[in-house]
Amino acid sequence: QVDVAAMVQLFGYVDVTDTGFIVAVLSIAFNPLFWNVVARWEHKTQALSKVFGSSHAACYCLGAAILVLNGVRSQCFTEAMKSQPKLEGWDCHWTYYSGLAISAVGTLFVVSSFLALGFTGTFLGDYFGILMEEKVTSFPFSVLDNPMYWGSTAIYLGWSLMHASPAGLLLTAVVAISYTIAVLYEG
């Protein structure tokens, strides 16, 4: 049995009607929807490859768009956290350094995933017909499935702890839910 009293108290600090918070939720939900819809559309039509003259150029352009959208998402996330109250009991060195450690582990998973997959492997090259020679099974894929998604989630969790932000924790849950849905859709 779960005691939800602590959770209710924690999220009592969050104004979910705040415009910045709503924008952050929408940007979090939009990103995986965008790249999955565009990639599947490309796979069916090769429209982007035709427009850009090659599948590689199209994949690199989609990758650049995803990177820009991720920057926008991170900025929206940060602004939503800053506009909401901190949890004073968490605004201490222990929580800050715990968050920093969690973010470091998340960064390790994201960066090592990128290095293992390369740019086109990371940014949906398979939908453009750019296939890897074999499935990547080395670290971090040997440790967990979808390490880039869960590494990114860990970065947001750590960032939220570093800022003692209940709003950040709730937004991190939105990130995790969005990635869970993306994994189900992609599978």
Topology at a glance:
Blueprint: H1 5-11, H2 19-45, H3 47-52, H4 55-82, H5 93-122, H6 147-162, H7 166-186
Helix pairs in contact: 2-4, 2-7, 4-7, 5-6, 6-7
Subcellular location: Endoplasmic reticulum membrane
Organism: Acrocephalus arundinaceus (Great reed-warbler)
Keywords: Endoplasmic reticulum, Lipid biosynthesis, Lipid metabolism, Membrane, Methyltransferase, Mitochondrion, Phospholipid biosynthesis, Phospholipid metabolism, S-adenosyl-L-methionine, Transferase, Transmembrane, Transmembrane helix
Measured between the Cα atoms of the first and last residue, the distance is: 31 Å
**Total number of helices:** 7
Shape: globular
Proportion of beta-strand residues: under 5%
Average pLDDT number: 93
Helix content: over 70%
Structural domain tally: 1
| SSE order, one letter for each helix or strand | HHHHHHH
Radius of gyration (CA) equals 18 Å
Total DSSP E strands:
0
Structural class of the secondary structure composition? mainly alpha
User: What profile does the largest beta sheet have?
Assistant: none
Low-pLDDT sequence parts: none
EC number: 2.1.1.17, 2.1.1.71
Main location: endoplasmic reticulum
Protein name: Phosphatidylethanolamine N-methyltransferase
InterPro entries: PEMT/MFAP, Phopholipid_MeTrfase
